[in-house]
Design a protein that fits this description.
The chain is mainly alpha-helical. It has three domains: 147 residues, Rossmann fold; 48 residues, no CATH class; 49 residues, no CATH class. 48% of the residues lie in helices and 6% in strands. It has 13 helices and four strands. A four-stranded parallel sheet has the order 3-2-1-4. Helix 2 links the parallel strand 1 and strand 2. The radius of gyration is 20 Å and the shape is globular.
Amino acid sequence: MNEVEFYLEDLKSKFSKINPKEYYLSYSGGKDSHFLYWFIKEYLKDNQIKVVGINTYLEHQQILNRINNNSDVVLKPVMKPFEIKEKYGIPCFSKIQDNVIYYYQNGSRANWVMQRINGLDEKGNPWKFRINNIAREKLLDGSLHKISNKCCTYLKKKPAYQFNKNSGVLPILGVRASESIQRKAMYTTCFTKDKKFTPLHDLKDDLLTKIYNYCNIEIPKIYDLVTKTGCMGCPYGSWKGDTVKELALVTDNQYKFLWEYFRESYKVLNISNYRQLTLF
């Protein structure tokens, strides 16, 4: 038994711990959730676990096609993107930093907020958990636009929460601890405190790639160009160049929508409107 076969059998044993009628697959169409889709449908041959997708209005077309084709139920956001922007603000730097900025812009001067803004811990020592210099400077001089990390909350988390509540079933999440420091702290076992099932929490990138290749699992061509396929044009991908790559892939109408939605964040992050002559 090779490494891939061993992992698949181990994953099968994890699924034996749940009642299929009590869980559904939260399906985004990305690599992680699609691997779970393949595993449930092809490896386990299970037709009891429902597949639930969410059309955020910001999906790449190839990913949206996957959601529509493979989901038993497709949810819609509880608020549309521009409604979220008007009420709460838009993403810019990172989820953690934007959360700090949101609270500061809405009047909070709590210790945890000021510590992250000033970069000092409770004893006044330099602290690595702080917002970056550009964010701090613009926030404190009042030139920063309205920012929040609530885009994901209302496009994805809220509709999923409502589905959980109304259906009485819990999600199987394709989250992996290796994707971020925050997730490494949050996902340490197959079950969260509220009994969500996270069977891939310990799966590493290199093994996932081996599984895809060994089992010949389909990968959308968009992955030849970007490493992740979240919401199109999201500024959170700017630090590794994915935002610019995504903007080069979308249609003119999609580009116009994304530029209007993320305009202020793109300006702060120096993402240029290179297609403006054909759009405006």
